[in-house]
Amino acid sequence: MGQYTREGGITSWRRLCPLAEGIGYAGQMILLYSCMCYIIILAWALLYLFFSFSSELPWASCDNTWNTDNCVDGAARNLTVNRTTPMNSTSPATEFWERRVLSLSGGIEQMGHINLELLLCLIVMWITCYFCIWKGVKSTGKVVYFTATFPYAMLLVLLIRGLTLPGALQGIMFYLYPEPARLSDPQVWMEAGAQIFFSYSLSVGSLTVLGSYNKYNNNCYRDSLWLCLLNSGTSLVAGFAVFSVLGFMAHQQGAPIEEVAESGPGLAFIAYPQAVAMMPLPQLWAVCFFIMIILLGLDTQFVGMEVVMTSVMDLFPTVLRKTGRREMFLLIFCLICFFGQLVMVTEGGMYVFQLFDYYACNGACVLFLSVFESLAMGWTFGAERMFDIIEDMTKTRPNYIFMLCWKYFTPLVSLVSLVYSLVEYQPLTFNRWYVYPDWAYALGWLLALSTILLVPGWALGRLFTGKGNLKQRWRHLCSPDKNLPLTCKQHTQMQQMMRTTEMEDLI
Taking 60 as the threshold, does the pLDDT of residue 207 lie above it? Predict the structure, then answer.
């Protein structure tokens, strides 16, 4: 943040509140873990996209080499129609996902061999990401013009198609009508809040870093409002597109929609492909869907990688801002992430992926950062000082509700949500039947603590290695950088003080 220099991420925290510098590092760790998870999803989607060009979708029937005797296609899964259908039957979409795409093993203890098809897809996605962002935000911005807008065209096509299917109204009603009994369940609100944090990329530094490329007088007030409206609006419309198709699938199978709806990866790689296979021209809708998934995922991946790159370059500007250094560092970053996630494209890779997703990128870590970020911003740096800066940037005084949020509402709600998530913690399971071994749970908590402990650890390290006595160190670490650019209001006050001093000298 500055009128004359561009700074974002870790360096912003260092200058605004040195005691909270660890928040910046913790946010980058969460982004790093997220990048490793997101690009695996992109590899899965790319493999599905390749299969979508088949003359017959491979997840549409049970006549494939990977299918088992328990495989039953959609037409036979309705028990009210076909009483001979076994209770332990599986759909062809489920078997394609687990046995063909993942080659799923019996557990994390059985990692098995590397899936070469997924490995090739992963390499393609890393190469794509590298060449799209290797020149910085200028090249990324040009790519994002396409990757951020074209998915809206695909979403509109899928929405129109979904709304015209039989049973779509059933899915829409399920989507819009809440279960009154669940509204009193705190877990529902916890999951909704965590989704908002991830959807808006809060607390991890993404918005701070990307906003640092704006001009100083950019209307951040307006941009924040548009971000909320576009993000939530897109999610709302996407819900109509997804649940209209799920309603169609429930109608075709004669089953309640609760039985066909999936969450997590199962929605994108089991439920929706299975519904698409029931439509006329299934290849067309499958291609549209997976292109949309890939482009949306690329946007997220671009942002995560660009934020990490910018934050590191701001930390070492004299080294990394030389010609060719950024491209070399980005290559090293991509290679480290690629080799680090090879374990996720093995037969047991899905278990490792879920471990990262559940512990390293979970809501508790983000809520923990949110508590300390709001306290550092609202109290240490000062909400009043932030108000002056925003007024200087936008020429408009923010609403007083923002000060209440920064100082009281946000840290309180985040803290209550964090405590509740820890009290109601449930160990990770896979497909509701596989229980991880104890060493895997310990590894998961180590991943979570690798981000959480950075905040107090960095603060204590700075406190004990600083100069002066303990009180002086604390005061220094809780004070913003004295070289921060002055606002217009501060310039005016300084000029008035100088005039007063000059008048006193003349007298």
Answer: yes
Please report, to the nearest 10 degrees, the dihedral formed by the alpha carbons of residues 62, 66, 69, 71 taken in order.
Answer: -40
Identity (one letter) of the amino acid at 495? Answer: Q
Tell me, what's the pLDDT at 125? 96
pTM, two decimals, is 0.89
> What pLDDT score was predicted for residue 141?
75
> Which long-range CB contacts under 8 A does 191-199 form with residues at least 24 apart?
191/363, 193/363, 193/413, 193/417, 194/362, 194/363, 194/366, 194/367, 194/417, 194/421, 197/363, 197/366, 197/367, 197/370, 198/363, 198/366, 199/231, 199/232, 199/235
How crowded is residue 291: how many other Cβ atoms within 10 Å of its Cβ?
17
pLDDT at 431 over 50: yes
Give dist(CA 187, CA 422) in Å, integer. 12
Q: How far apart are CA 371 and CA 103, in angstroms?
A: 41
Tokens of 87: 């209770």
pLDDT of res. 240 = 93
The residue type at 204? V
Say yes or no to pLDDT of 4 above 60: no
CB of 275 closer than 8 Å to CB of 249: yes
Determine the pLDDT at residue 7.
63
Burial of 266 (0-12, 13-18, 19+ CB in 10 A): middle
pLDDT value at residue 50:
96
User: Please, what's the b/e burial string for 300-329 (b: 16 or more CB within 10 A of its CB; e: otherwise)?
Assistant: bbbbbbbbbbbbbbbbeeeebeeeeebeeb
∠ Cα 360 363 368 (to 5°): 90
Reported confidence tier of residue 45, pLDDT bands at 50, 70, 90: very high
Q: How far is CA 85 from the centre of its chain?
A: 40
Report the pLDDT value the prediction gives residue 486, as an integer from 0 to 100: 65
- Contact assessment for residue 345 and residue 118, using Cβ atoms and an 8 Å cutoff: yes
The stretches of 261-407 forming alpha helices (DSSP H) are 265-266, 272-276, 282-315, 317-320, 325-340, 349-355, 363-375, 383-394, 400-404
Please provide residue 297's backbone torsions phi and psi, each rounded to the nearest 5 degrees: -65, -35
Mean pLDDT, the chain, integer? 86
Is 262's pLDDT higher than 50? yes
pLDDT at 85 over 70: no
pLDDT at 42: 95
Tokens (6 digits) for 436: 């991880």
Helix/strand/coil for 279: coil
- Sequence-distant (6+) residues with CB within 8 A of 340 are 36
Q: Beta partners for 207?
A: none
Shortest CA distance to 459 belongs to which of 474, 449, 472? 474
On the 0-12 / 13-18 / 19+ scale of CB atoms within 10 A, 378 is buried
